[in-house]
Amino acid sequence: MFVCAAQRLVDKRVEEITGKLKQGEQVKGMYLTYLLSSNKLSLEELYTSITELLLGGVDTTSNTLSWTLYHLA
After folding, report:
1. What 3-state class would DSSP assign to 1?
2. Of these four, 10, 48, 54, 60, which has the most CB atoms within 10 Å of its CB?
3. What is the extent of the structural domain holding 20?
4. Which of 17-21, 57-61, 67-71 has the highest average model confidence (pLDDT)?
5. Residue of 13, 10, 20 whose CA lies nearest to 44
6. Is this prediction's pTM over 0.70?
7. pLDDT > 90: percent of the chain
């Protein structure tokens, strides 16, 4: 379920970025923009990379909050 939601978000952003690139506009952004403009990854590899990044952020946030609450208790 999370993968499908992440894939929809990536698809939406990919459409925005590729549309701007086709029109010759400069696209400002960070990680996803770089990955798309470099043409080094397939779409499947792009999904995997972004999903891992999102899941990694969830883990570190939950661990930090758990640690903080433990020490506040």
Report:
1. coil
2. 10
3. 2-72
4. 67-71
5. 10
6. no
7. 5
Give the tens place of pLDDT for each residue, 9-53: 888 888 888 888 788 888 777 777 887 777 788 888 888 888 788
Sign of the dihedral through C-alpha 49, 51, 52, 54:
positive
Burial of 4 (0-12, 13-18, 19+ CB in 10 A): exposed
- What whole-number distance in Å separates Cα of residue 72 and Cα of residue 52? 30
Determine the Cα–Cα distance for residues 18 and 24; give it in Å rounded to an integer. 10
> What is the number of structural domains in the chain?
1
Say what the pLDDT of residue 49 is. Answer: 82
